[in-house]
Amino acid sequence: MPFTLDETFGYLTEIQGDNETIERYSKFLNKPGAIIFRESIKKYPGKKFIYFYIDAGTEIQYFHTSCGDAEEDGDLLKFSNGDTKFTFKIDKNCLTNLQKKELMMNI
Do 50 and 63 meet the contact criterion of CB atoms below 8 Å apart? Predict the structure, then answer.
């Protein structure tokens, strides 16, 4: 069971990786969403990963990273696992309070 370290809001602003990876996650680019930063307790103790949720209109869509390393740089959260790198821009005002509440209730 993973442990949640932090929950915030923002955008996925950049994906670096092979073409298949970029294509798989491109629908999440520049969309406001919930960033859930977690840590593995049993399978990979101490390793971190991210869940990113967006409201796609008719449904909540999400992805999660594999375990990797995170680095904060101002309002950017940079996450890497192997050859894949994700950059998130933290923006707690990217959604209204009502949108945040509805998104979090449907996760």
Answer: no
Q: What is the DSSP string of 44-100?
A: STT-EEEEEEEE-SSSEEEEEPPSBEEEEETTEEEEEETTEEEEEEE-TTSS-HHHH
Q: Is 31 helix (H, G, I), strand (E, B) or coil?
A: coil
- Tokens (6 digits) for 30: 């520049």
Choose among 94, 101, 74, 79: nearest CA to 10.
94
Distance CA 43, CA 77 (A): 24
Q: Which two tokens stand for residue 72?
A: 């904060």
**pTM for the predicted model, two decimal places:** 0.90
Q: Give the tens place of pLDDT for each residue, 80-101.
A: 998 999 999 999 999 999 999 9
| Distance from C-alpha of 26 to C-alpha of 29, rounded to nearest angstrom | 5
**Are 84 and 16 in contact, with CB atoms under 8 Å apart?**
yes
| Cross-strand partners of 65 | none
The pairing of beta strand 48-55 with beta strand 60-64: antiparallel
